[in-house]
Amino acid sequence: MPVDLEAMFKKEAFRNLEPEKVEVFRKFATQLDGKSGPEILSLYMKFSKELSRGRPMTRDEKTAIIEAIGESLPRAEQPKFRNIVKMLDGFL
After folding, report:
1. In this structure, how many other beta carbons lie within 10 angstroms of the beta carbon of residue 71?
2. What is the DSSP letter of 1?
3. Stretch 55-79: mean pLDDT
4. Which residues have a Cβ under 8 Å from the Cβ of 50 and sit 6 or more positions away?
5. In this predicted structure, what is the pLDDT of residue 36?
6. CA of 2: how far to CAs of 7, 37, 55, 88, in Å?
7. Residues 65 and 29: beta-carbon distance below 8 Å
8. DSSP 2
9. pLDDT in the model for residue 25
């Protein structure tokens, strides 16, 4: 499931994040290539835990990043990703 990282980092969600959070996310994003939707969400949860050690992300920041990831996936993979996000909504 290739993710268009260049397009993803141009999204407003990333322009509004604190630089430290963007750097942690860049590290996370480099691991996304070739991952399935569930694998991406698992990595996202790991990323979220890493951020919580410093300054936790707000719910709005999390939502914006998840949306940016979904929009950066190939069109055929987006519905599957959104369904997985809906199932895990309380955990993200």
Report:
1. 16
2. -
3. 81
4. 24, 28
5. 76
6. 12, 10, 29, 21
7. no
8. -
9. 78
pLDDT in tens, 1-55: 456 777 777 888 778 788 888 887 788 777 877 777 778 778 878 877 777 777 7
Interior/surface letters 8-18, b for 16+ CB within 10 angstroms, e for the rest: bbebebbeebe
For the chain, the domains span: 5-91
- For residue 23, what are its two tokens? 């750097």
pTM: 0.63
pLDDT at position 66 is 83
Cα dihedral 29→65→70→25 (10° resolution)? 0
| Among 66, 75, 56, residue whose Cα is nearest residue 32 | 66
Phi-psi region for residue 31, left (φ > 0), alpha (ψ -120 to 50) or beta? alpha
How many residues are present in the chain? Answer: 92
